[in-house]
Write a structure and sequence with these properties.
Elements lengths: L5 H16 L4 H14 L4 H9 L10 H6 L8 H9 L4
Helix pairs in contact: 2-3
């Protein structure tokens, strides 16, 4: 009955993350958690890799900078308007 409970599955994952973060200094643990939250990567493996690679020591990008670089496949809304309706307005 309890083996299939989603709450217990999440609890074990959180316990593993907290235990792993407890092995590191508080400032690094906080920075790793902040980076994981910022990028939406809340798994044990993601946090472990952040700490292993020292990414917690690098500053987080500002939100405006994060998207101002653009994306490889991003298109401006005008692209779709022109593609769907031509240049007629």
């Amino acid at each position: 009955m309890f083996a299939s409970d989603d709450v217990l599955l999440k609890l074990r994952s959180v316990q593993a993350i907290v235990t792993h973060l407890g092995k590191h200094p508080g400032d690094r643990a906080e920075a790793a958690a902040a980076r994981a939250r910022y990028y939406g990567s809340r798994s044990y493996v993601a946090i472990r890799n952040i700490l292993r690679q020292g990414l917690d020591l690098e500053p987080l990008e500002q939100e405006s900078k994060r998207w101002s670089k653009g994306s490889r496949f991003a298109r401006h809304p005008h692209y779709f308007k022109e593609t769907l309706y031509g240049n007629a307005r």
